[in-house]
Specification:
mainly alpha
Length: 84
């Protein structure tokens, strides 16, 4: 195997490693999101201010944003290395 093939395989393995590590971290992140939602009382619609609603929206978008970040980071690494 030539040097280009070895570095491509290493990039693929590193991209898979980043993806799997990120997905494992999401499990720990969801616990913190649940704790933050409970402390902000986001589930109750009574007597909630606009600032609290906005904070609840930002807390809720954390997990999907993190997943998109993981996928784009791993995919970007692979696409840069493979030059597709």
């Amino acid at each position: 195997m030539n040097k280009n093939g070895q570095t491509t395989m290493l990039a693929i393995l590193f991209g898979i490693f980043i993806f799997l590590t990120g997905i494992v971290i999401v499990n720990f992140l969801t616990d913190d999101v649940d704790t933050a939602r409970n402390s902000l009382e986001c589930s109750t619609n009574q007597n909630i201010t606009d600032g609290t609603r906005l904070t609840c929206l930002f807390v809720d978008i954390t997990v999907p944003y993190f997943i998109i970040l993981i996928i784009s980071l791993a995919g970007g690494l692979l696409m840069r290395r493979l030059r597709i």
